[in-house]
């Protein structure tokens, strides 16, 4: 690194780069006292200083590449993970995105003060340019942290959506030749597709003649949900199984009638128990109460 | 029909699908890709065999069919319709889940066709008489 001539360096970007490299230690020390670093690195101050140095190095590298306005600059890749961890730690502590952002903004003044103190003799417009460049650089750092935090959140949402698809559609074997699917939550196209596929697969696997779709956990039934149900019932029928829809709550039954939804020839029962009773009867199986010695299943 | 278009159905025509007779029931097993002309031939063969033999039921086993299109769906529905006219019942057996989903998405839920999970269940359905059909899971009452 060439030693710069006092007060008359080249472009403001180079000036800022040199300043960052020169004052690395001091900047890191001052940042370690800021709430953001103090709250994230609670174990020791040295750790915070080290983290601060890494960020300063990254900023210097970005300035070196003259890409102060580019959040995708190569210099940020080394600290991206660390920044993401810091952002995530603050979010976990209950801070809103805006609060994290303002904590990041608080990192700027100490550096700016140092820079101004470093340029006492340079011409006023040059000093102003340098400060502006530094501000832009710090702004870009903020964008990087926010970007990382948002993409982390998006990845989490995607992961959870997949998990929800897997978890929320178990197929239960109730009896020899009877399977049941308790549907929970809103039925959209993706989920009803998964439900249909897993149900049909298990019909083949278990050689189930009867399948019960229990919609107790479905909050509302509109025409779309009814259509999904009809499709599932039709597909199961094509394979040679009969579908029974159970768990239609009184309010839902009322809504369905108001909406004019017709489930056609689908057999419906009020509760899963009723549906099981119906299917057992169809199969010619009865449950006998050993005490009263009378049939229970209707 | 599809001779002009190269596709899965334009392989060498395999001619007739064998129609086996088990007492009062005719058993047809479809395997793999079914040529369109073969499907039409089968439709014709079945009609003639039913009227000649007086069979009361037809079982079409499609467990070996992995791909179904709207044409085959229509052929199945037509076979069911014509056997009904000849006083026999058609049971489609062993449809794969993917095939069932495809047919439903195509809007072909084959309302006139009876279905069963296995040939055994289908035989049971056909050899029983109407009152007992509720135990056997007969999906559609005969008119």
Automatic annotation (TrEMBL), chain A:
Keyword Cell inner membrane (UniProt): no
PROSITE patterns listed in its UniProt record: STAS
Protein name: STAS domain-containing protein
Organism field: Streptomyces marokkonensis
Residue ranges constituting the STAS domain according to the UniProt record: 168-279
Domain of life where this protein originates: Bacteria
Keywords: Phosphoprotein
From TrEMBL, chain B:
Signal peptide: none
Domain STAS: 15-126
SUPFAM superfamilies found in the cross-reference section: SpoIIaa-like
Superkingdom of the organism of origin: Bacteria
Annotated TM spans: none
InterPro entries for this protein: Bact_StressResp_Reg (IPR051932), STAS_dom (IPR002645), STAS_dom_sf (IPR036513)
Pfam families tied to this protein: STAS
CDD domains per UniProt: STAS_RsbR_RsbS_like
Protein name as it appears in the record: STAS domain-containing protein
């Amino acid at each position: 690194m060439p030693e710069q001539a006092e007060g008359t360096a080249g472009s403001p970007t180079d000036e800022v780069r040199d300043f960052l490299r020169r004052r690395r230690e001091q900047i890191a020390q001052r940042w370690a006292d800021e709430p953001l670093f103090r709250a994230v690195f609670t174990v020791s101050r040295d750790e915070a200083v080290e983290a601060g140095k890494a960020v300063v190095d990254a900023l210097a590298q970005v300035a070196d590449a003259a890409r102060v306005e580019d959040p995708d600059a190569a210099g940020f890749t080394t600290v991206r993970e660390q920044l993401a961890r810091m952002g995530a730690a603050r979010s976990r502590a209950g801070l809103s995105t805006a609060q994290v952002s303002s904590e990041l903004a608080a990192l700027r003044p100490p550096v700016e003060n140092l820079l101004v103190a470093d340029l006492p003799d340079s011409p006023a417009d040059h000093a102003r340019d340098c400060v502006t460049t530094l501000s832009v650089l710090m702004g870009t750092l903020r964008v990087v942290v926010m970007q990382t935090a948002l993409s982390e959140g998006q990845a989490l949402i995607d992961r959870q959506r997949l998990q929800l698809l897997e978890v929320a559609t178990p197929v239960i074997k109730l009896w020899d030749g009877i399977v049941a699917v308790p549907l929970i939550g809103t039925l959209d196209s993706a989920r009803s597709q998964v439900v249909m596929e897993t149900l049909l697969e298990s019909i083949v696997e278990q050689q189930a003649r009867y399948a019960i779709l229990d919609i107790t956990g479905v909050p509302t039934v509109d025409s779309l949900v009814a259509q999904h149900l009809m499709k599932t019932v039709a597909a199961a029928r094509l394979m040679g199984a009969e579908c029974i829809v159970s768990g239609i709550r009184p309010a839902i039954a009322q809504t369905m009638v108001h909406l004019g939804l017709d489930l056609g020839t689908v057999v419906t029962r009020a509760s899963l128990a009723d549906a099981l009773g119906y299917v057992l009867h169809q199969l010619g199986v009865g449950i006998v109460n050993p005490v009263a010695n009378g049939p229970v299943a209707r | 029909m599809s001779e002009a278009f190269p596709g899965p159905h334009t392989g060498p025509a395999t001619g007739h699908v064998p129609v086996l007779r088990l007492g009062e029931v005719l058993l047809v097993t479809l395997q793999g890709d079914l040529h369109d002309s073969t499907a039409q031939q089968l439709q014709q063969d079945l009609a003639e065999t039913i009227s000649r033999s007086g069979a009361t039921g037809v079982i079409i086993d499609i467990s070996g069919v992995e791909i179904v299109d709207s044409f085959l769906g229509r052929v199945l529905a037509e076979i069911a319709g014509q056997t009904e006219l000849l006083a026999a019942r058609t049971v489609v057996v062993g449809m794969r889940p993917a095939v069932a989903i495809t047919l439903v998405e195509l809007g072909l839920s084959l309302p006139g066709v009876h279905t069963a999970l296995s040939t055994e269940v289908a035989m049971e359905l056909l050899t029983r008489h109407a009152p007992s059909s509720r135990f056997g899971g007969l999906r559609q009452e005969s008119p």
